[in-house]
Amino acid sequence: MKRSERLVNITKYLLARPHVLTSLPYFAENYGAAKSSISEDLGILKRTLAADEDGILETVAGAAGGVRYIPFMGEDKARAYVKRLVNEVQQPDRILPGGFLYLSDVLGSPYHLQQIGKLISTHYAYSNVDYVMTIETKGIALAQAVSRYLNVPFVTVRHRSRVTEGATLSVNYVASASDHVEKMELANRMLQENSNVLIVDDFIKGGGTLSGMEQLVKEFHCETVGKCILCEAYYPHQQQVSDYLALVSISQIDQQNKTIHAQPGNFLEQTDFNKFEK
User: Fold this and answer.
1) Which of 64, 66, 81, 229 qualifies as a cystine partner to 246, CB 3.0-4.6 A?
2) Per-residue confidence at 278, pLDDT binned at 50, 70, 90?
3) What is the mean pLDDT of residues 184-190?
4) What is the DSSP letter of 165?
5) Residue 259, preceding bond cis, omega within 30 degrees?
6) Residue 121: predicted pLDDT
7) Residue 147: alpha-carbon gap to chain centroid
8) Is 99 exposed, middle or buried (0-12, 13-18, 19+ CB in 10 A)?
């Protein structure tokens, strides 16, 4: 196999298995090449990813070591994408009765899900996440996109139990939109005890749903390692949660004049993009 062909194959293999450690002997045996040649190939790939700020090829030394691909978005690309996302969110035809926003096109777009999934996973690339959690229904595609890049399972919290999921554990929470007490639940077998959970959702106003999911994580004797939201909206009352990241922050939705005022959220400023080796 020519080096160019081998490089393509190795790249495809690693990109399909983010965060998975693969030994150099595996590549050497698979491609019938010397370890020194494989090391040179991986060096080329590592430099290319770093130059494009499109991912990190991490080398682990030792007998049990190897290489793994860490999906990681560079700061320039991240800021450019969030700017585009803000512009799309501000389109006046997104305003729905009641001051809600139409975001289903964003959450159904392969392009946006790919970008959002990689961007969120960039912040949590080294956070030892075991599960990604969301609540039905809008957040499901978002959680799946993030779990794809972190290469961990995602779990869906439901408002009502499903007979196909067996026994469930439930918590009550105060829904911010209605100030009513509601219930959410998760199948008992979905989370392993002492796991680290990343909570993601599409939209936050008062934070009731986010607070409920955090409480559910505690009931499973697990730890919440992060909370990340696609869009946050200004809420005149006290929010139930504050320590979360948001890609887009909406300060005003004017139904009468059909205008939306949005800007980048706190995600970019709280993310360390300096992981690339120059």
Assistant:
1) 229
2) very low
3) 94
4) G
5) no
6) 97
7) 6
8) middle
Please say if the pLDDT value at position 163 is more than 90: no
DSSP letters spanning 113-133: HHHHHHHHHHHTTTS---EEE
3-state secondary structure 166-218: CCEEEEEEECCCCCCEEEEEEECCCCCCCCEEEEEEEEECCCHHHHHHHHHHH
Q: What is the pTM of this model?
A: 0.93
Contacts of 183 (CB under 8 A, 6+ apart): 159, 170, 171, 172, 173
Length of the chain: 278
Q: What is the mean pLDDT of residues 10-38?
A: 95
Cβ contacts of 98 within 8 Å, gap of 6 or more? none
Per the CB < 8 A criterion, the answer to whether 133 and 87 are in contact is no
pLDDT at 237: 67
CB 33 within 8 A of CB 6: yes
**What digits encode the pLDDT tens for the residues 80-96?**
999 999 999 999 999 98
Arithmetic mean of pLDDT, 128-146: 96
Task: Give the domains, in start order, of the chain with CATH numbers.
Answer: 3-70 (1.10.10.10), 75-270 (3.40.50.2020)
